Amino acid sequence: MTIVAVTLLATLVGSSNLPTLQVVESLPAEIAYLSIAAGVLAVLAWNAGIGILGAANGVLFINLVPITAFAIGVAQGHRFGAGEFIGVVLVIGALLANNIATRAPARPLMTRPKFA
User: Fold this and answer.
1) Number of Cβ within a 10 Å radius of residue 86
2) Distance CA 47, CA 62 (A)
3) Contact (CB, 8 A) for 99 and 57
4) pTM of the full predicted structure?
5) Would the CA dihedral through 15, 13, 32, 28 be positive or negative?
6) Contact criterion met (CB below 8 Å) for 67 and 88
7) 112 pLDDT higher than 70
8) Cα distance between residue 108 and residue 110, in whole Å
9) 88, exposed or middle or buried, with CB in 10 Å at 0-12, 13-18, 19+?
10) Angle CA(57)–CA(61)–CA(63) in degrees, nearest 5?
């Protein structure tokens, strides 16, 4: 629903144009792939993965996507600056710290008095 709303808004303000019917008809395999494989199957696989890994690990995994993109850029020879490397370290550190902190057993804030 969000994609439809954003697309309609972008079309109304003129920053995007709807494809013509000829363009849509010329790309049936691509549209089918995006609709079925990249849309439906990917969401089902993601939900199954979250069910297996748990929410904390799922969040850790999805937040590593920008780090993976960064690593691919490095592998392709892109030269990043010091600020970008610092950002990567901060993101990885924050993700790991949050993941570890949410796994630690919670301590009670106060103990209840014991009565005989």
Assistant:
1) 10
2) 12
3) yes
4) 0.49
5) negative
6) yes
7) no
8) 5
9) middle
10) 120
Query: Which residue's structure tokens are 């049936």?
Result: 28
pLDDT tens figures, 64-108: 788 888 889 989 999 888 988 898 888 888 878 877 887 766 666
Pull the structure tokens for residue 71. Answer: 């690593």
| Overall size of the chain counted in residues | 116
Structure tokens at 116: 């005989």
* HEC sequence for the chain: CHHHHHHHHHHHHCCCCCCCHHHHHCCHHHHHHHHHHHHHHHHHHHHHHHHHHCHHHHHHHHHCHHHHHHHHHHHCCCCCCHHHHHHHHHHHHHHHHHHHHHHCCCCCCCCCCCCC
CA distance 60 to 100: 10
Residue 88 in contact with residue 70, Cβ under 8 Å? yes
